[in-house]
Amino acid sequence: MLDVKDLVSRETGLVSRQIFVDQEVYEMELERIFARSWLFLAHETQLPNPGDFVAAYMGEDPVLVVRDSRGKINAFLNTCRHRGMRVCRADAGNAAAFTCTYHGWTYGNDGKLVGVPGYKEYYYEELDMEQWGLVPVAQVDSYAGMIFGTFDSSAPPLLEYLGDMAYYLDFLVHRRPEGSEVVGGVNKWIMPCNWKFAADNFAGDGYHVPITHISATKMGFTSNRISVQQRTRGLHVSPQGGHGVITRPGFNPDATWPVDEWPQINEYYHQTLVGEMEQHLGPRTHLIEPIVGTCFPNLSFEFFTMRVWHPRGPQKTEVWSWCFVDKAAPEHLKREMQLFHSRRFGPGGAFEQDDGENWNQCTYASNGRISRRQEFNYSMGLGHERYDENVPGLTCESPSEVRQRNLYSRWAELMAAESWDDIRTSGSAGR
Ligand code: FES
Ligand SMILES: [Fe+2]
């Protein structure tokens, strides 16, 4: 078994490039990261009615998320127990049951096997149908409408797993009492890069913005007024547990935000949202504003977008991206927000293109026999992080790679541990 302890150092901030390109590391990640962690599956607004379903992935495993006829949300491996056919090949829909198109085994929307062709004549009624339902995801739970699942029955409860990250997620999905909703479908695309480059960038890389995105900024895809100072002012927060958030100072009624090129959205933020957030989220509204982040391991968010970085090999990532808006926002503004999202972070979005190119080239240029022996430097701000009494998590006042150090430390901890019990014993299950 691969020994990962030499690959990541929290003390020095050095991380081996091997973890971004190596097949053996990748295989172990599927077991120890993706088969253990709470992974984002869908949003409840995608499943408003009994029988509604959406397809999802957990690592490389296809999953079906279904609201059963009694209204409960379940998740199952999307593979027939008979010979493995994908039971449902639609992305989304409504069904009372799923009939496998290979030999016709049929599963109820609660996952139970309810029909087998030839049950009497070919199986002599000896097949124990109770035992051959769809394989359930071990734990399914939701936070503020966001549905998560884990294949590990011993994983800590979702709220404990999210830890301090829940405080920051509220700004995104629960800043109005009605919560948020998904608009439009899921954008999906493949990138030739390791999934961690993307997770790491969203977790805490504000450093790249003025350089990587300069042309998009000059073209007017975001406010020219978002200067380096604005990008870097405020606290940089690492909520532990591998999660990371890039923040700005809290909502300021005089600020032009999100961008001055979208006056209707600005107006909504400042005339509707701020007041309501004060009521709903309390004083934190003016303390800090999360703008980009990653929920460990592979769920990231930015204004109006959530995305999951599905691993597809050490050097391939499949992105699933959703547009999220406040449920109570006026309909015409939801459309504006969708446009805002897709021009910046849709598959052809200006910022998305910039970011993807970096991650692809970082992967490509780390793959050689000599390059993979080198290390990445995550030492920025090392030793300057501290606990701030006002907000949860480790913070740093200047740009820092504290969040990436935290992400890779968590990654290494999970990779090295035999089980969640090991991590509990070391006292860091929710950290
Ligand atoms: S593979 Fe599904 S019924 Fe045979
Ligand atoms: Fe970026």
How is this fold's topology laid out?
Blueprint: E1 8-9, E2 14-16, H1 18-21, H2 23-34, E3 39-43, E4 52-58, E5 61-67, E6 73-77, E7 92-94, E8 97-99, E9 106-108, E10 113-115, E11 139-143, E12 146-150, H3 158-162, H4 165-173, E13 180-191, H5 195-204, H6 209-212, H7 214-218, H8 228-232, E14 236-238, E15 244-249, H9 263-281, E16 288-295, E17 299-302, E18 305-311, E19 317-326, H10 331-345, H11 350-364, E20 375-377, E21 386-387, E22 394-396, H12 402-416, H13 420-425
Antiparallel strand pairs: 1-2, 2-20, 3-12, 4-5, 4-7, 5-6, 8-9, 9-10, 11-12, 13-19, 14-22, 15-16, 16-17, 17-18, 18-19, 21-22
Bound molecules: FE2/S2 (inorganic) cluster and fe (ii) ion.
Describe the structure.
It is built from 13 helices and 22 strands. It starts with 7 loop residues before the first strand and ends in a 6-residue tail after the last helix. Residues 224-232 have low confidence and may be disordered. A hairpin with a 5-residue loop joins strand 5 and strand 6. Helix 2 (23-34) packs across helix 12 and helix 5 (195-204) crosses helix 12 (402-416). The chain folds into two domains: 8-35 and 164-418, Naphthalene 1,2-dioxygenase Alpha Subunit, Chain A, domain 1 (Alpha-Beta Complex); 39-142, 3-layer Sandwich (Rieske Iron-sulfur Protein), CATH 2.102.10.10. It has 431 residues and is an alpha+beta fold. Strands 13-19-18-17-16-15 form a six-stranded antiparallel beta sheet, with helices on both faces. Helix content is 29%, strand content 25%. The chain binds FE2/S2 (inorganic) cluster and fe (ii) ion. FE2/S2 (inorganic) cluster (FES) is lined by residues 80, 82-83, 85, 100, 102-105.
